[in-house]
Design goal:
Blueprint: H1 2-32, H2 36-70, H3 75-85, H4 87-103, H5 112-145
Length: 146
């Protein structure tokens, strides 16, 4: 049971990290190479497709890491779980206001303000990538030490 829970924590965290880093290094820069209206339309479509996957992976990793700790794992399992778990409140507190502005029906998708919001979103999303990378490295180190 413990080994399976550890694997779930690590796998879901590293999948989240890979997706988050891909978004920051590949997807978002590519869309920002387009005109603002196109970038905004593509961002909205991508956001709607990614939200459930990324939220699920972060929550699963958090719960699995917490479970490992509760089953007798070291406090570092709790630390790692808390780091990946932080992406959820960070998303709600820091990123959602920008998401809501970008998704507003009255938004001028070609405006300079929209481009600035997309740039801001990319910077905010990089925090999620960094947090998940830290958690992934920590989880992997813990798994290798076992």
């Amino acid at each position: 049971m413990l080994e399976i829970t550890q694997l779930i924590a690590v796998l879901s965290c590293t999948l989240f990290t890979g997706a988050a880093i891909y978004i920051n290094l590949v997807e978002h820069p590519a869309r920002m190479g387009c005109d603002t209206k196109t970038a905004s339309i593509v961002w909205a479509s991508s956001y709607k497709r990614a939200i459930m996957m990324q939220a699920s992976l972060a929550i699963i990793s958090f719960l699995a890491g917490l479970t490992v700790w509760l089953l007798g794992g070291s406090v570092m399992w709790l630390f790692s779980a808390m780091i990946i778990g932080l992406v959820v409140p960070f998303t709600f507190i820091a990123i959602m206001p920008t998401n809501n502005l970008l998704l507003a029906p009255e938004r001028d998708l070609a405006s300079q303000e929209t481009r600035e919001l997309l740039n801001k979103w990319g910077k905010l999303h990089s925090v999620r990538s960094l947090l998940s990378l830290i958690a992934s490295i920590s989880y992997i180190v813990l798994l290798i030490k076992v």
